[in-house]
Amino acid sequence: MRKLKxxxxxxxxxxxxxxxxxxxxxxxxxxxxxxxxxxxxxILVAMVGARSCAMAFNRxxxxxxDSMNPRTATRxxxxxxxxxxxxxxxxxxxxxxxxxxxxxxxxxxxxLSPVALAVVMGYSYTKRFTAFSHFWLGFSxxxxxxxxxxxxxxxxxxxxxxxxxxxxxxxAGFDIIYACQDVNFDRKHGLRSxxxxxxxxxxxxxSAALHVLAVLLLLYIPFLVELGTFYYVxxxxxxxxxxxEHAIVKPTDLSRxxxxxxxxxxxISLVLMVLSIADILL
Length: 282
Description:
Shape: globular
Low-confidence stretches: none
Distance between the termini: 42 Å
Order of helices and strands: HHHHHHHHHHHHH
Radius of gyration: 19 Å
């Protein structure tokens, strides 16, 4: 239990809240109401398994770089708080949870589960060869609403694909902000990111542009599915949070990056989920 607690802290388990609300939102839209309890439960298991596997694998792959970066040197593996073998066991079990959940949902979800694992685990290598790693991370999170839709409907459709692009743009935007902290380290060690390539000022402008595009796609979704007042209120709140997020992070002041990255983006997904569900049910 002590090792499990260390691992859950290492992977920031509580930040599963980032992508999970979009999967839940997609499930409610696909069901046009309340999904069955069994399917909803297995969607949650799949999401937790996928995210936990991806984060634990990332800590394994990046352990050497984490040990050299003052910002990450206190993480569990470089600090010697947990062994790599223990994290490998957790990673494999988490991957198994995703596959099991997909198997219990439907044949298409089960068939696509290895693809999902390849996507979320593949992200860990991207900074070694492309500055567009932020978009791969965005894609890793963005498959969650598509997966939830498939879990309910057993097929693809346009609404979850649009929601997929919303999550991709939103995630890439806030990950660019987060990467601004490591510009000097990334350049020194040959790691690639948009802030390291373009500089912090232009990276922050690009992040803002991606979030504008995400909002425009959110406004398009009600043309595809029946959503109304509560949903639009949620989008309005998301816009206000985006404005605040970009106001508090400046090229000359990155002291509030963690507030922008963790707290505000967690609020964005939760607010949109709650008000979307309220719209669907009420």
